[in-house]
Amino acid sequence: MTAISDEDLTAYADNELPESRHREVAEALQHDHALRQRYQRIAQAGTLARQAYAELADEPAPAHLRRIAETAATAEPGTEPGLRHAYRRSVGARIVAANWVRWLWRPVPALGAGVVAGALAGALAVVLFTPEDSGRTPGLDLTGQIPRDSPIHEALQTVASGEVSQAGETRVAPVATFRPGGATVCREYQARLPDREDTLAGVACRREDGRWSNEAVLWLSKDGTYRTAEGASALRRLRDSWRTAEPLSPAAEKRVLSNSET
Amino acid sequence: MSDVRQQIVDLIPRLRRFACTLTGSRDAADDIVQTALERALTRLDQWQPDTHLDRWLMRIVHNVWIDEIRRNRRFVSVPEVSDRHLGADPGDRLAEARVALSQTRVAIARLPALQRDVLALVCVDGRSYKEAAEILDVPVGTVMSRLARARKQLADMLESPNHRNAGMTVGKLR
Lengths: 262, 174
Prior knowledge:
The structure holds two protein chains of two kinds.
Chain A lengths: L5 H8 L5 H13 L1 H22 L8 H9 L10 H12 L33 E2 L16 E2 L4 H8 L6 E3 L2 E9 L7 E7 L6 E8 L5 E9 L10 H12 L7 H9 L4
Antiparallel strand pairs in A: 1-7, 2-7, 3-4, 4-5, 5-6, 6-7
Chain B lengths: L2 H21 L2 H17 L10 H19 L21 H18 L2 H12 L4 H8 L3 H20 L1 H13 L1
Helix pairs in contact in B: 1-2, 1-3, 1-5, 2-3, 3-6, 4-8, 5-7, 6-7
């Protein structure tokens, strides 16, 4: 048997030795008084360390730290920056496309989501869209093409990022416009639909026939639960492929949108 | 409130204890936890939901602490020994035990930083070597050797009369 080191005794005290070595040390401790003393010092130092700070774990979290965990986000509490602001900030940070699987995404305040429960309600809330949700929203196929007569189509065609368009009870807010590759034009948007608590967030790309097709959609909810579905990996792929795409400037966006009157 | 936020709130006491073991000071610990929470929330996208939130947060606390040491700002190893731990009646066994514990805190705070963090994780927080290695981003063997040195040194300090006096002095100063 090799000599028993302080490391052996430490790992023995923490029950971290491989079984055979553990047995050897246990055996030696029975017969070797000096070794036992060495062991007791090492074990006792660990026990004292644990006791020295034991009571701290029972202390409730101080209010100011709780508050940070509960509310800290990318936005300032109590303010409603409005869409222009939100848009500029997103563009400035180049995070719009990269934001797809950030759980910090929050509904655009001007859409009226989450405002009742406070400006930060929903800050952390992302509900990934699952196909079964599709049936619950009549008149809107969320998984694919956006119908031409849909308010979302209308908004994607004409409304500048940062503006809100309203048609009946549906409010649509384009957030940013991208050209992720070649000529394809894609837009990130958020929408409030009738009879839905949650805010719909989506990325749609314009196809050659002039119709918009959702690449990815998810629900931003107020209660903060989110379900991961197959959608998650699709969103991640989307984000990765767009990592380098920057939102178009308002002027460039305007040119792209005016070309779309097909 | 979201599940993740609730989990983070629930972990705060444990993060504070970790930070307190590292800094030896409650105030410094709260500052570190505050910075760590803010950092964690802005980087929540970097946390993989199928991994351990507690380890990820402890790692951030540890990183904030290391940053703090590098900036050499404050309280790197000035321990806190509050009066209520010293006890009023010197003959009281409980008071004696408390003195022993406050001396232990002083001694822990005097350990080299790279021994203190393994001690904080394994002995105080009850982590396995593997978990501690993951949080600190070092090999398991490194955890073991640092921990052995930390314990040896802690035992030496607690047995030395010089240390005992030093601990009491610090206690009276604060």
